[in-house]
Amino acid sequence: MYLVGKINVISTLPEKFKRLNDIAYNLWWTWNSEAIDLYREIDLELWQKVDKNPVRFLQEVSQKKLQAKLSDEEYLSRLDKVVASFDSYMSEKNTWFSQNHSELTDKKVAYFSAEYGLSEVLPIYSGGLGVLSGDHCKSASDLGIPFTAIGLFYKQGYFSQRINRDGWQETCFNDLNISQLPMLPALNANGEQVRISITFAGRTVYAIVWKVQIGRINLYLMDTDVAENSPADRSLTSRLYGGDQETRIQQEIFLGIGGIRVLDAIGIQANVFHMNEGHSSFMGLELIRKLINERHLNFNEAMEVVANSSIFTTHTPVPAGNDVFPLFMMDKYFGDFWGQLGLSRYDFLELGLKNPEDQNFNMTVLALTLAGRKNGVSKLHGAVSRKIFGDVWPEVPEDDVPITYVTNGIHTLTWLSPKIKALYDKYLDRDWQKKIYSEETFANVNSIPDEELWATHVELKNKLITFIRNRLKKQKLANGESMEAVRQVDNFLDPNALTIGFARRFATYKRANLIFRNLARIQKILNDPERPMQIIFAGKAHPADGPAHDVIKNINDIAKMEGFYGKVILLENYNMTVARNLVQGVDVWMNNPRRPLEASGTSGQKVCINGVINFSILDGWWCEGYNGENGWIIGDESEFDNENIQDNTDSESIYDTLEHKIIPLYYNVNENGIPTEWVRFMKNSISSLSWNYSTDRMVKEYTGSMYVPAITGNSKICDDNYSLARSMCGFRSHLNSNWHNVQLFAEKSAGDLKYYKTDSCQEIYLSTTVCLGYIDPSNVIVEVYYGTLSNGKIENAQTAEMHCDEKTGEGTYRYSINLKIFDGGEYGYTFRITPKHEHLINRFDTGLIKWIR
Ligand SMILES: *Cc1c(COP(=O)(O)O)cnc(C)c1O
Known about the structure:
Blueprint lengths: L17 H7 L8 H8 L3 H6 L4 H7 L2 H8 L2 H19 L4 H5 L8 E4 L3 E2 L5 E2 L3 H16 L3 E6 L7 E4 L5 E4 L11 E2 L9 E6 L2 E12 L2 E7 L7 H4 L10 H22 L5 E5 L5 H14 L3 H11 E4 L10 E3 H8 L2 H4 L4 H6 L9 E3 H8 L2 E4 L2 H10 L15 E2 L6 H4 L2 H10 L22 H29 L4 H6 L9 E6 L15 H8 L6 E6 L7 H14 L8 E4 L4 H10 L2 E4 L11 H6 L4 E5 L4 H4 L5 E4 L8 H25 L8 H14 L5 H44 L4 E3 L17 E9 L8 E11 L2 E9 L1 E7 L2 E9 L6 E9 L14 E2 L2
Parallel strand pairs: 1-4, 1-11, 4-10, 11-12, 12-15, 15-16, 17-18, 17-20, 18-19, 20-21, 21-22
Antiparallel strand pairs: 2-3, 5-6, 7-9, 8-9, 9-10, 13-14, 23-24, 24-28, 25-26, 25-29, 27-28, 29-30
Helix pairs in contact: 8-29, 10-11, 11-12, 12-29, 20-24
């Protein structure tokens, strides 16, 4: 039909409802279910039609329905309560941060991430990384961190997934309608929408900036869809992880370099810059360029400043997973840039090369080189990162590689079912929501009566089953399946059967179909007449990941087979809405990645707060979270060289644990039909995990170990016209130019030293002669490095600083120590020297280290 024109009718809200509009534009509603209720109650049908989007809801709601609510006293009083709670949240001055760091409330942390999973309404995330960024922002708001987030606006978001009749994934992209999003133009001091530009590869590209309010903090998103840009540039930011490497490098230039320009254009002076994953690491280069340009520092001085103010979080446990760009592409986009830093092409490229022969510029290496503080996202991932990035610091032993860890968490109130929240409101301390990070908060979970917790869980499980059936029917109708096939969906899933959930991105290392490795055995488990089981799958495969598509197809085929039909379910289009329903409604959450490739994993953290129990490989966060009584493990901590053997061992472990532990526990019910031992596991899981794997704990930890030290470091380094930056450069260059003369000598002990441990512990005298040349002893640390011997190598190394006894000649000194070793065994030891300076963030970062030869 020919459209003559469009008419946009915008409802005007009665005065009473104006505040609902303020709340619609602040994602605070995403973690305050009482606010969500206020919209959906006005018109449930419309609420579902607009995909639970409050902004769009208010645009389309009928005036009549609003009027009707105006006479509902009970509704109006709840409205007042929600508005009051929103206002008091927004104006709260007494936050965790202000209580603990009152002197730093005027500082600012800028956080950079390529994706943000805040709500399904704003689908600019692909999976765990994005959801983590979103949850990080929400907790930063809750804790009162002075915080601003930076990202890109992807007009077409990430793709929507369809699984066709044959079981193949199809991707579709739709333009988001900006006027319906919880997003407003970011305005500058003149009240105009902020706009930035970047010149690269011989042209200038512009972007406008949008503002998303997340409680007390803002997220700014860049969007290149503006009239001044060429059609190709207008679509530069249209898709998350879309396009080729050219698109990717340009998006990352915007994220990193553009992000800094956005902060400037808005007038935000950040003290700390947090790169969440390597996509934004060009940011450091822009900071350096500005310091050189505006503050007249040289490159090394600027590096010093940037190191002190920047933080890098890596999420990738495999070298191949890192973002890299071929050098010719770096030439194309940065050919004009290195000159501005006073660098040669070679010195510039070296910032991102893992080794000098590399032909790819590595964004992770760049971030590791520039950021002064670096971390992985679980204890195990920290260790894996130290191993795989060890070659950035040759000579530094793995344990000392300067990458620490902060284990991921989830934003509790975002993922918590309102029904379980009501139980916590009833049985936990009144202000439990303000102390989610504290262990004591959840200790009272044991006072929730078993019947009540179980009944709530059963209710949520039934709700999930209805949700799944509805989606499956739509899925089948869209695929043109017969009415009979659609009708059969009503018999899918048994509310009484043990229900396993498995949902995450379909990356092959996550091994979604591992449980089908022995089809006969799993079929028997699923079909036990007394104790049946069922499994729900969901997940998207990256469009370019062929093997992952095969996994989807494989699960889809199995789900159609006799003995699996109606018991193995594959839901399409995994997103935050599907995730929320699943993590609140299944009995067990299964995760079986190929260890140690799961950096952290967070979906398992979303389930524990809802009384769902984890069954997982000892990888990522579960390696720390599992305590023997709060869930189950698959396999053990073994490492495998052979993937086939690993898959066999792990799948056998899945079957054994299901058959001997999980299923018997679930079906062991008392006279009232309550599986009391199971409920005990649920409670253990809630009380031992909820607080620790929350982003409240995580952001608190980032604040304590990263943000506050970086704020302090940054203010010291900038003080007095960067005098510390200059003197640190002097220190480094003095050490760099004299380090080749540094040597250690020790007389090899004639035979093995033999000591007897006694109660009082005998001291072992060790000494070494050190040649420092022009370096002063106050500028180095001399250490004994020792540990038990295994195959001639030192294991479980420990160090102890040695004392400088005397000057034995020009530039040479004698160092010694009286070492105490408490445990018997065969030990090896050696000596080493590293730099020492009170303002070095991490002495191993300098790469300067000398061992005895
Ligand atoms: C939480 C979440 C993830 C992360 O899941 P993992 O199991 O940690 O990989 C991915 N996608 C969505 C939609 C999520 O909500």
